[in-house]
Amino acid sequence: MTRVIEAAKDLLAVLEAEPSADTVEDMIAVQALALGNKTAVVVTLTRPAQHNALTLAGWQRLGAVFTDLRDDPAVRVVIVKGAGGRAFGAGADISEFPAKRLGSAAADRYNAAIAGALQAIQTVPFPVIAMIDGLAVGGGCELATACDIRLASSGSRFGIPIGRLGVTLGLTETRAVAGLIGAANLKYLVYSGDLATADQALAWGLVQKVVETGELSAETARLAWNIVESSEVTVRATKQVTALAADPAVTDEHELIRELHAQAYEGNDLREGIDAFLTGRTPNFTDGRIPAHGRA
């Protein structure tokens, strides 16, 4: 169930509080906050006693949540966080592995659920912020890297200590982590089993900003509302073009690049932004048109 909260000022309160039981399904809570016709969504992993480790059902639910949000034209930003204040996420729930992840057929189904969840996050057209307070290990670290931006508290720790477990990294997870920190640092995390500090994660590019624990919710809320109040044309195009830029074969003549270019320079947001700048006022962007390729 998704709970809609009709006040932008309540985002900070939602980030600082535990989600109510009526927002939780299969360990995932979803809360939507409306600002006029725009929406910010908070997705919370809700198994604090298990450091927010996700069962197979939890991974499937996470994928379904982002698949549903992808087609909601009001959504401008999503924040992913963990409940309890000790962990963002500890990845998969190892206690269910004997029944659900042993044997190649069972493992294929389980791994597909994890990959599907990460891909659903990566392919939504709006930004996804990981708000990391505490442990982000294993699949929790991989989940964070699937998001667009990661903010962390100074006491957070990051790692993929799977060498003592005997599982392998999937291709989706490997691309997500190595794309941020490089193949060598990913190998170091796996081979050493060490947990990196927040400062080390910042130096590697795994997180974009580190703040004190008491400042994390406010810093996340500030970034989220800045995104909500920015031009949707700019925000969505930034995500789409950076994804395309990873392919060296893509040029400025790519169809989507040209479509985004036309949308920006023929649309209303640029006119509004220029007028607001020249007259010294806050812009009021309304042009939410999305290119035909934007939902791909």
UniProtKB/TrEMBL annotation:
Alphabetized Gene3D superfamilies for the sequence: 2-enoyl-CoA Hydratase, Chain A, domain 1
Highest taxon above the source species: Bacteria
Family, as annotated: Belongs to the enoyl-CoA hydratase/isomerase family.
Protein name, entry field: Enoyl-CoA hydratase/isomerase family protein
Organism, as annotated: Arthrobacter gyeryongensis
Lineage: Bacteria, Bacillati, Actinomycetota, Actinomycetes, Micrococcales
